[in-house]
Amino acid sequence: MKDAVFHLKCTRKNLSSIYKCFLPSSPFKLKSIHTNSINIGKPLQFSIHKDDALVPQLVSILQTCTDPCSLSQGRQVHAQMVVSGIGYNGNLRTKLLGMYIICGGFLDAKNMFYQLQLWFPEPWNWMIRGFTMMGQFDFAFLLYFKMLGCGTLPDKYTFPYVIKACGGLNSVALGRVVHDKIQAMGFELDVFVGSSLIKLYSENGCIRDARYLFDRMPRKDDVLWNVMLNGYVKNGDRGNAIGVFMEMRKTETYPNSVTFACVLSACASEMLINFSSQLHGLVICCGLEMDSPVANTLLAMYAKCGHLFDARKLFDMMPKTDLVTWNGMISGYVQNGFMDEASCLFHEMISAGMKPDSITFSSFLPLLSEGAALRQDVEMACKIFNERTPVDVVVCTAMISGYVLNGLNNNALEIFRWLVQERMRPNSVTLASVLPACAGLATLKLGKELHGHILKNEHGGSCFVGSAIMDMYAKC
User: Would you state the pLDDT for residue 452?
Assistant: First the structure.
Protein backbone atom coordinates (compact mmCIF):
# COMPACT_ATOMS: atom_id res chain seq x y z
CA MET A 1 0.00 0.00 0.00
CA LYS A 2 2.80 2.42 0.94
CA ASP A 3 4.66 1.67 -2.30
CA ALA A 4 1.54 2.33 -4.35
CA VAL A 5 0.89 5.65 -2.61
CA PHE A 6 4.53 6.64 -3.06
CA HIS A 7 4.26 5.80 -6.77
CA LEU A 8 1.25 8.07 -7.07
CA LYS A 9 3.00 10.92 -5.28
CA CYS A 10 5.84 10.70 -7.77
CA THR A 11 3.54 11.34 -10.74
CA ARG A 12 3.53 15.10 -10.03
CA LYS A 13 6.04 17.40 -8.37
CA ASN A 14 3.45 19.13 -6.24
CA LEU A 15 0.12 17.35 -6.03
CA SER A 16 -1.22 19.74 -3.41
CA SER A 17 -2.05 22.11 -6.27
CA ILE A 18 -4.47 19.54 -7.65
CA TYR A 19 -7.15 20.48 -5.18
CA LYS A 20 -7.10 24.18 -6.12
CA CYS A 21 -9.63 23.46 -8.85
CA PHE A 22 -11.95 22.08 -6.17
CA LEU A 23 -12.04 25.26 -4.10
CA PRO A 24 -15.71 26.32 -4.11
CA SER A 25 -16.55 29.52 -5.92
CA SER A 26 -18.07 32.46 -4.09
CA PRO A 27 -21.90 32.63 -3.87
CA PHE A 28 -21.87 35.73 -6.06
CA LYS A 29 -19.94 33.91 -8.77
CA LEU A 30 -22.30 30.98 -8.68
CA LYS A 31 -25.27 33.29 -8.91
CA SER A 32 -23.81 35.11 -11.90
CA ILE A 33 -23.21 31.84 -13.72
CA HIS A 34 -26.74 30.68 -13.07
CA THR A 35 -28.47 33.89 -14.10
CA ASN A 36 -26.40 34.36 -17.24
CA SER A 37 -26.90 30.80 -18.44
CA ILE A 38 -30.62 31.36 -19.09
CA ASN A 39 -29.76 33.59 -22.04
CA ILE A 40 -27.66 30.97 -23.84
CA GLY A 41 -29.31 29.43 -26.88
CA LYS A 42 -33.02 29.17 -27.63
CA PRO A 43 -35.19 29.37 -24.47
CA LEU A 44 -36.80 26.11 -23.42
CA GLN A 45 -40.58 25.98 -23.14
CA PHE A 46 -42.06 24.41 -20.01
CA SER A 47 -45.76 23.65 -19.97
CA ILE A 48 -46.03 23.01 -16.21
CA HIS A 49 -44.80 25.29 -13.45
CA LYS A 50 -45.55 23.34 -10.30
CA ASP A 51 -42.36 22.26 -8.59
CA ASP A 52 -43.15 18.55 -8.24
CA ALA A 53 -44.39 18.21 -11.80
CA LEU A 54 -41.45 20.21 -13.23
CA VAL A 55 -38.78 17.85 -11.90
CA PRO A 56 -39.59 14.92 -14.25
CA GLN A 57 -39.60 17.33 -17.20
CA LEU A 58 -36.17 18.66 -16.28
CA VAL A 59 -34.79 15.17 -15.71
CA SER A 60 -36.09 14.12 -19.13
CA ILE A 61 -34.39 17.09 -20.80
CA LEU A 62 -31.10 16.45 -18.98
CA GLN A 63 -31.12 12.86 -20.24
CA THR A 64 -31.10 14.16 -23.82
CA CYS A 65 -27.96 16.23 -23.19
CA THR A 66 -25.26 13.77 -24.21
CA ASP A 67 -22.61 15.82 -26.06
CA PRO A 68 -20.93 19.25 -25.91
CA CYS A 69 -23.50 20.64 -28.35
CA SER A 70 -26.16 20.12 -25.65
CA LEU A 71 -24.30 22.09 -22.97
CA SER A 72 -26.27 25.31 -23.52
CA GLN A 73 -29.54 23.40 -23.20
CA GLY A 74 -28.32 21.84 -19.95
CA ARG A 75 -27.43 25.29 -18.62
CA GLN A 76 -30.95 26.44 -19.38
CA VAL A 77 -32.27 23.58 -17.28
CA HIS A 78 -29.94 24.70 -14.49
CA ALA A 79 -31.26 28.25 -14.78
CA GLN A 80 -34.86 26.99 -14.69
CA MET A 81 -34.07 25.10 -11.49
CA VAL A 82 -32.84 28.29 -9.85
CA VAL A 83 -35.76 30.39 -11.09
CA SER A 84 -38.32 27.77 -10.00
CA GLY A 85 -36.72 27.33 -6.59
CA ILE A 86 -36.17 23.58 -6.94
CA GLY A 87 -32.38 23.71 -6.75
CA TYR A 88 -32.57 21.86 -3.43
CA ASN A 89 -33.56 18.59 -5.14
CA GLY A 90 -30.52 16.36 -4.58
CA ASN A 91 -31.36 13.81 -7.26
CA LEU A 92 -31.91 16.51 -9.88
CA ARG A 93 -28.70 18.29 -8.97
CA THR A 94 -26.73 15.04 -9.25
CA LYS A 95 -28.17 14.50 -12.72
CA LEU A 96 -27.20 18.07 -13.56
CA LEU A 97 -23.63 17.32 -12.43
CA GLY A 98 -23.61 14.27 -14.69
CA MET A 99 -24.82 16.36 -17.61
CA TYR A 100 -22.00 18.86 -17.13
CA ILE A 101 -19.42 16.04 -17.07
CA ILE A 102 -20.78 14.33 -20.19
CA CYS A 103 -21.09 17.62 -22.08
CA GLY A 104 -17.64 18.86 -21.12
CA GLY A 105 -18.65 21.70 -18.79
CA PHE A 106 -16.10 20.83 -16.16
CA LEU A 107 -16.02 24.23 -14.44
CA ASP A 108 -19.80 24.09 -14.01
CA ALA A 109 -19.45 20.52 -12.75
CA LYS A 110 -16.90 21.63 -10.15
CA ASN A 111 -19.24 24.35 -8.88
CA MET A 112 -22.15 21.92 -8.71
CA PHE A 113 -20.05 19.26 -6.97
CA TYR A 114 -19.63 21.38 -3.84
CA GLN A 115 -23.34 22.07 -3.62
CA LEU A 116 -24.17 18.38 -3.26
CA GLN A 117 -24.30 16.03 -0.30
CA LEU A 118 -20.92 14.37 -0.57
CA TRP A 119 -21.63 11.45 1.73
CA PHE A 120 -23.27 9.73 -1.25
CA PRO A 121 -20.99 8.15 -3.89
CA GLU A 122 -22.79 9.48 -7.01
CA PRO A 123 -21.20 12.98 -7.07
CA TRP A 124 -17.75 11.49 -6.50
CA ASN A 125 -18.34 8.94 -9.26
CA TRP A 126 -19.17 11.68 -11.75
CA MET A 127 -16.12 13.76 -10.87
CA ILE A 128 -13.78 10.75 -11.04
CA ARG A 129 -15.31 9.92 -14.42
CA GLY A 130 -14.78 13.51 -15.56
CA PHE A 131 -11.08 13.49 -14.68
CA THR A 132 -10.67 10.13 -16.42
CA MET A 133 -12.42 11.39 -19.55
CA MET A 134 -10.00 14.34 -19.67
CA GLY A 135 -7.00 12.04 -19.28
CA GLN A 136 -6.17 13.47 -15.84
CA PHE A 137 -5.72 10.00 -14.37
CA ASP A 138 -3.63 11.05 -11.38
CA PHE A 139 -6.30 13.59 -10.38
CA ALA A 140 -8.99 10.93 -10.71
CA PHE A 141 -7.09 8.58 -8.43
CA LEU A 142 -6.40 11.26 -5.85
CA LEU A 143 -10.08 12.18 -5.82
CA TYR A 144 -10.85 8.52 -5.12
CA PHE A 145 -8.51 8.67 -2.10
CA LYS A 146 -10.15 11.93 -1.01
CA MET A 147 -13.53 10.21 -1.26
CA LEU A 148 -12.33 7.46 1.09
CA GLY A 149 -10.80 10.06 3.40
CA CYS A 150 -14.16 11.83 3.66
CA GLY A 151 -15.76 8.59 4.82
CA THR A 152 -17.84 8.08 1.66
CA LEU A 153 -18.05 4.44 0.62
CA PRO A 154 -17.58 3.77 -3.09
CA ASP A 155 -20.05 1.58 -4.96
CA LYS A 156 -19.70 -0.68 -7.98
CA TYR A 157 -20.03 2.31 -10.32
CA THR A 158 -16.99 4.00 -8.75
CA PHE A 159 -14.43 1.32 -9.51
CA PRO A 160 -14.51 0.98 -13.34
CA TYR A 161 -13.29 4.57 -13.75
CA VAL A 162 -10.78 4.29 -10.89
CA ILE A 163 -9.37 1.16 -12.54
CA LYS A 164 -9.28 2.98 -15.87
CA ALA A 165 -7.24 5.71 -14.15
CA CYS A 166 -4.78 3.05 -12.96
CA GLY A 167 -4.47 1.85 -16.55
CA GLY A 168 -3.90 5.42 -17.72
CA LEU A 169 -1.06 5.68 -15.22
CA ASN A 170 0.31 2.29 -16.39
CA SER A 171 0.35 1.23 -12.76
CA VAL A 172 -0.61 -2.32 -11.91
CA ALA A 173 0.56 -1.60 -8.33
CA LEU A 174 -2.20 0.99 -7.87
CA GLY A 175 -4.61 -1.39 -9.56
CA ARG A 176 -3.84 -4.07 -6.99
CA VAL A 177 -4.52 -1.60 -4.18
CA VAL A 178 -7.92 -0.86 -5.70
CA HIS A 179 -8.48 -4.58 -6.29
CA ASP A 180 -7.99 -5.24 -2.57
CA LYS A 181 -10.67 -2.68 -1.74
CA ILE A 182 -12.97 -4.21 -4.36
CA GLN A 183 -12.54 -7.64 -2.80
CA ALA A 184 -13.23 -6.27 0.68
CA MET A 185 -16.48 -4.70 -0.54
CA GLY A 186 -17.58 -7.78 -2.49
CA PHE A 187 -17.62 -6.21 -5.96
CA GLU A 188 -14.88 -8.35 -7.53
CA LEU A 189 -17.29 -10.61 -9.43
CA ASP A 190 -19.49 -7.80 -10.72
CA VAL A 191 -19.37 -8.00 -14.52
CA PHE A 192 -18.44 -4.33 -15.03
CA VAL A 193 -15.87 -4.14 -12.25
CA GLY A 194 -14.43 -7.54 -13.18
CA SER A 195 -14.08 -6.66 -16.86
CA SER A 196 -12.27 -3.43 -15.92
CA LEU A 197 -9.79 -5.35 -13.76
CA ILE A 198 -9.26 -7.99 -16.45
CA LYS A 199 -8.57 -5.27 -19.01
CA LEU A 200 -6.09 -3.55 -16.67
CA TYR A 201 -4.16 -6.76 -16.02
CA SER A 202 -4.16 -7.98 -19.62
CA GLU A 203 -3.01 -4.66 -21.07
CA ASN A 204 -0.14 -4.42 -18.59
CA GLY A 205 1.35 -7.86 -19.14
CA CYS A 206 -0.37 -9.61 -16.21
CA ILE A 207 -2.30 -12.01 -18.42
CA ARG A 208 -2.31 -14.79 -15.81
CA ASP A 209 -3.99 -12.54 -13.25
CA ALA A 210 -6.50 -11.53 -15.91
CA ARG A 211 -7.28 -15.17 -16.78
CA TYR A 212 -7.57 -16.18 -13.11
CA LEU A 213 -10.16 -13.49 -12.50
CA PHE A 214 -11.91 -14.25 -15.79
CA ASP A 215 -12.34 -17.93 -14.85
CA ARG A 216 -13.88 -16.93 -11.51
CA MET A 217 -16.55 -14.70 -13.04
CA PRO A 218 -19.94 -16.39 -12.56
CA ARG A 219 -21.56 -14.57 -15.48
CA LYS A 220 -19.73 -13.67 -18.67
CA ASP A 221 -21.32 -11.32 -21.20
CA ASP A 222 -19.96 -10.50 -24.65
CA VAL A 223 -17.94 -7.55 -23.28
CA LEU A 224 -16.14 -9.78 -20.79
CA TRP A 225 -15.31 -12.40 -23.44
CA ASN A 226 -14.04 -9.68 -25.79
CA VAL A 227 -11.83 -8.15 -23.09
CA MET A 228 -10.18 -11.51 -22.38
CA LEU A 229 -9.85 -12.32 -26.08
CA ASN A 230 -8.33 -8.92 -26.86
CA GLY A 231 -5.95 -9.32 -23.92
CA TYR A 232 -4.48 -12.50 -25.41
CA VAL A 233 -4.24 -10.89 -28.87
CA LYS A 234 -2.35 -7.88 -27.46
CA ASN A 235 0.01 -10.21 -25.62
CA GLY A 236 0.70 -12.12 -28.84
CA ASP A 237 -0.79 -15.35 -27.48
CA ARG A 238 -2.56 -16.57 -30.61
CA GLY A 239 -3.32 -20.05 -29.27
CA ASN A 240 -5.10 -18.91 -26.13
CA ALA A 241 -6.95 -16.20 -28.07
CA ILE A 242 -8.44 -18.83 -30.37
CA GLY A 243 -9.06 -21.05 -27.33
CA VAL A 244 -11.10 -18.33 -25.62
CA PHE A 245 -13.12 -17.85 -28.80
CA MET A 246 -13.86 -21.57 -28.99
CA GLU A 247 -14.93 -21.55 -25.34
CA MET A 248 -17.21 -18.62 -26.05
CA ARG A 249 -18.84 -20.55 -28.91
CA LYS A 250 -19.86 -23.27 -26.42
CA THR A 251 -21.84 -20.76 -24.36
CA GLU A 252 -25.04 -18.89 -25.10
CA THR A 253 -23.11 -15.67 -25.73
CA TYR A 254 -23.08 -14.68 -29.38
CA PRO A 255 -19.92 -13.15 -30.90
CA ASN A 256 -20.24 -9.59 -32.18
CA SER A 257 -18.16 -7.44 -34.52
CA VAL A 258 -15.56 -6.75 -31.81
CA THR A 259 -15.18 -10.48 -31.19
CA PHE A 260 -14.61 -11.29 -34.86
CA ALA A 261 -12.21 -8.38 -35.36
CA CYS A 262 -10.10 -9.63 -32.43
CA VAL A 263 -9.99 -13.30 -33.36
CA LEU A 264 -9.43 -12.63 -37.08
CA SER A 265 -6.44 -10.41 -36.28
CA ALA A 266 -4.96 -13.39 -34.42
CA CYS A 267 -5.48 -15.67 -37.43
CA ALA A 268 -3.41 -13.73 -39.98
CA SER A 269 -1.19 -16.70 -40.76
CA GLU A 270 -1.01 -19.10 -43.72
CA MET A 271 -1.14 -22.00 -41.25
CA LEU A 272 -4.56 -20.85 -40.02
CA ILE A 273 -6.11 -19.99 -43.39
CA ASN A 274 -8.61 -22.87 -43.20
CA PHE A 275 -9.77 -21.79 -39.75
CA SER A 276 -9.91 -18.18 -40.94
CA SER A 277 -12.10 -19.20 -43.89
CA GLN A 278 -14.46 -20.92 -41.46
CA LEU A 279 -14.58 -17.74 -39.41
CA HIS A 280 -15.47 -15.82 -42.56
CA GLY A 281 -18.41 -18.17 -43.08
CA LEU A 282 -19.50 -17.61 -39.49
CA VAL A 283 -19.24 -13.84 -40.01
CA ILE A 284 -21.60 -14.15 -42.99
CA CYS A 285 -24.03 -16.28 -40.95
CA CYS A 286 -24.08 -13.56 -38.28
CA GLY A 287 -24.73 -10.88 -40.91
CA LEU A 288 -21.53 -8.97 -40.10
CA GLU A 289 -19.65 -9.37 -43.40
CA MET A 290 -20.22 -5.71 -44.32
CA ASP A 291 -19.44 -4.35 -40.87
CA SER A 292 -16.48 -2.04 -41.44
CA PRO A 293 -14.08 -3.23 -38.67
CA VAL A 294 -14.81 -6.89 -39.42
CA ALA A 295 -14.49 -6.48 -43.21
CA ASN A 296 -11.21 -4.56 -42.83
CA THR A 297 -9.80 -7.25 -40.55
CA LEU A 298 -10.88 -9.97 -42.97
CA LEU A 299 -9.21 -8.12 -45.84
CA ALA A 300 -5.98 -7.67 -43.87
CA MET A 301 -6.06 -11.35 -42.87
CA TYR A 302 -6.40 -12.57 -46.46
CA ALA A 303 -3.68 -10.15 -47.62
CA LYS A 304 -1.21 -11.27 -44.94
CA CYS A 305 -1.91 -14.91 -45.82
CA GLY A 306 -1.12 -14.18 -49.47
CA HIS A 307 -4.68 -14.79 -50.68
CA LEU A 308 -4.90 -11.53 -52.63
CA PHE A 309 -7.68 -12.76 -54.91
CA ASP A 310 -9.98 -13.21 -51.90
CA ALA A 311 -8.82 -9.91 -50.42
CA ARG A 312 -9.53 -7.98 -53.64
CA LYS A 313 -12.88 -9.73 -54.09
CA LEU A 314 -13.88 -8.63 -50.58
CA PHE A 315 -12.55 -5.12 -51.28
CA ASP A 316 -14.67 -4.80 -54.43
CA MET A 317 -17.78 -6.10 -52.64
CA MET A 318 -17.61 -3.57 -49.81
CA PRO A 319 -20.34 -0.92 -50.30
CA LYS A 320 -18.32 1.69 -48.45
CA THR A 321 -14.54 1.81 -48.26
CA ASP A 322 -12.72 3.95 -45.72
CA LEU A 323 -9.05 4.86 -45.41
CA VAL A 324 -8.32 1.71 -43.40
CA THR A 325 -9.71 -0.41 -46.25
CA TRP A 326 -7.57 1.29 -48.91
CA ASN A 327 -4.46 1.09 -46.73
CA GLY A 328 -5.03 -2.61 -46.06
CA MET A 329 -5.38 -3.46 -49.74
CA ILE A 330 -2.38 -1.36 -50.83
CA SER A 331 -0.27 -2.85 -48.05
CA GLY A 332 -1.36 -6.34 -49.06
CA TYR A 333 -0.25 -5.80 -52.65
CA VAL A 334 3.11 -4.34 -51.57
CA GLN A 335 3.83 -7.08 -49.03
CA ASN A 336 3.21 -9.73 -51.66
CA GLY A 337 5.33 -7.99 -54.33
CA PHE A 338 2.51 -6.80 -56.61
CA MET A 339 3.93 -3.30 -57.07
CA ASP A 340 2.04 -2.42 -60.27
CA GLU A 341 -1.30 -3.33 -58.71
CA ALA A 342 -0.43 -1.33 -55.60
CA SER A 343 0.47 1.70 -57.71
CA CYS A 344 -2.80 1.47 -59.69
CA LEU A 345 -4.81 1.15 -56.48
CA PHE A 346 -3.03 4.15 -55.01
CA HIS A 347 -4.03 6.21 -58.05
CA GLU A 348 -7.63 4.95 -57.70
CA MET A 349 -7.59 6.00 -54.07
CA ILE A 350 -6.54 9.55 -54.96
CA SER A 351 -9.12 9.71 -57.77
CA ALA A 352 -11.82 8.63 -55.29
CA GLY A 353 -11.02 11.71 -53.20
CA MET A 354 -9.51 9.75 -50.32
CA LYS A 355 -6.65 11.58 -48.60
CA PRO A 356 -3.73 9.32 -47.59
CA ASP A 357 -2.31 9.34 -44.09
CA SER A 358 1.04 8.29 -42.63
CA ILE A 359 0.06 4.61 -42.84
CA THR A 360 -0.66 5.01 -46.56
CA PHE A 361 2.76 6.55 -47.10
CA SER A 362 4.42 3.80 -45.07
CA SER A 363 2.65 1.15 -47.18
CA PHE A 364 3.35 3.05 -50.40
CA LEU A 365 7.03 3.58 -49.63
CA PRO A 366 8.35 0.33 -51.17
CA LEU A 367 6.82 1.42 -54.49
CA LEU A 368 9.23 4.33 -54.60
CA SER A 369 12.19 1.96 -54.57
CA GLU A 370 11.27 0.83 -58.07
CA GLY A 371 12.99 3.94 -59.44
CA ALA A 372 12.29 5.63 -62.76
CA ALA A 373 9.68 3.07 -63.82
CA LEU A 374 7.44 4.55 -61.12
CA ARG A 375 8.74 8.13 -61.12
CA GLN A 376 5.16 9.38 -61.61
CA ASP A 377 4.37 7.88 -58.22
CA VAL A 378 7.15 9.92 -56.64
CA GLU A 379 5.70 13.08 -58.18
CA MET A 380 2.21 12.17 -56.98
CA ALA A 381 3.50 11.44 -53.48
CA CYS A 382 5.24 14.84 -53.47
CA LYS A 383 2.03 16.58 -54.55
CA ILE A 384 0.01 14.85 -51.84
CA PHE A 385 2.69 15.67 -49.26
CA ASN A 386 2.53 19.38 -50.12
CA GLU A 387 -1.29 19.41 -49.84
CA ARG A 388 -1.50 17.31 -46.71
CA THR A 389 -2.28 18.89 -43.32
CA PRO A 390 -1.14 18.07 -40.76
CA VAL A 391 2.14 16.35 -41.60
CA ASP A 392 3.83 14.22 -38.96
CA VAL A 393 7.29 12.67 -38.60
CA VAL A 394 6.17 9.37 -40.14
CA VAL A 395 5.02 11.05 -43.35
CA CYS A 396 8.23 13.12 -43.57
CA THR A 397 10.33 10.00 -43.03
CA ALA A 398 8.44 8.18 -45.78
CA MET A 399 9.03 11.05 -48.20
CA ILE A 400 12.73 11.30 -47.29
CA SER A 401 13.21 7.56 -47.86
CA GLY A 402 11.30 7.73 -51.13
CA TYR A 403 13.45 10.56 -52.45
CA VAL A 404 16.69 8.86 -51.38
CA LEU A 405 15.71 5.56 -52.97
CA ASN A 406 15.08 7.40 -56.24
CA GLY A 407 18.35 9.36 -56.08
CA LEU A 408 16.62 12.68 -55.33
CA ASN A 409 18.96 13.51 -52.45
CA ASN A 410 18.49 17.29 -52.54
CA ASN A 411 14.73 16.85 -52.25
CA ALA A 412 15.26 14.51 -49.29
CA LEU A 413 17.39 17.11 -47.52
CA GLU A 414 14.80 19.82 -48.21
CA ILE A 415 12.15 17.71 -46.48
CA PHE A 416 14.49 17.14 -43.54
CA ARG A 417 15.27 20.86 -43.20
CA TRP A 418 11.55 21.66 -43.32
CA LEU A 419 10.91 19.04 -40.64
CA VAL A 420 13.47 20.67 -38.33
CA GLN A 421 12.10 24.18 -39.04
CA GLU A 422 8.61 22.99 -38.05
CA ARG A 423 10.12 21.86 -34.74
CA MET A 424 9.30 18.21 -35.29
CA ARG A 425 11.68 15.81 -33.59
CA PRO A 426 13.27 13.41 -36.08
CA ASN A 427 13.45 9.88 -34.77
CA SER A 428 16.09 7.24 -35.41
CA VAL A 429 14.32 6.02 -38.56
CA THR A 430 14.26 9.58 -39.95
CA LEU A 431 17.97 10.02 -39.30
CA ALA A 432 18.86 6.65 -40.80
CA SER A 433 16.84 7.63 -43.88
CA VAL A 434 18.44 11.04 -44.41
CA LEU A 435 22.09 10.01 -43.85
CA PRO A 436 22.29 8.23 -47.25
CA ALA A 437 21.32 11.56 -48.85
CA CYS A 438 24.47 13.10 -47.35
CA ALA A 439 26.48 10.17 -48.65
CA GLY A 440 24.95 10.51 -52.12
CA LEU A 441 25.86 14.20 -52.29
CA ALA A 442 29.23 13.71 -50.52
CA THR A 443 28.35 16.48 -48.06
CA LEU A 444 30.65 15.51 -45.21
CA LYS A 445 29.99 18.72 -43.24
CA LEU A 446 26.23 18.10 -43.12
CA GLY A 447 26.85 14.46 -42.32
CA LYS A 448 28.98 15.44 -39.32
CA GLU A 449 26.27 17.83 -38.12
CA LEU A 450 23.74 15.03 -38.30
CA HIS A 451 26.13 12.74 -36.46
CA GLY A 452 26.40 15.34 -33.69
CA HIS A 453 22.62 15.60 -33.51
CA ILE A 454 22.39 11.81 -33.26
CA LEU A 455 24.87 11.70 -30.38
CA LYS A 456 23.18 14.59 -28.58
CA ASN A 457 19.78 12.95 -28.73
CA GLU A 458 21.10 9.44 -27.98
CA HIS A 459 19.97 7.85 -31.26
CA GLY A 460 23.36 6.29 -31.90
CA GLY A 461 22.46 3.06 -30.13
CA SER A 462 20.27 1.89 -33.01
CA CYS A 463 22.00 -0.62 -35.24
CA PHE A 464 20.58 0.80 -38.48
CA VAL A 465 21.55 4.36 -37.48
CA GLY A 466 25.11 3.24 -36.75
CA SER A 467 25.29 1.43 -40.09
CA ALA A 468 24.02 4.54 -41.90
CA ILE A 469 26.70 6.70 -40.18
CA MET A 470 29.49 4.31 -41.18
CA ASP A 471 28.21 4.16 -44.74
CA MET A 472 28.03 7.97 -44.90
CA TYR A 473 31.65 8.43 -43.71
CA ALA A 474 32.86 5.71 -46.07
CA LYS A 475 31.25 7.36 -49.12
CA CYS A 476 32.21 10.92 -48.16
Answer: 77
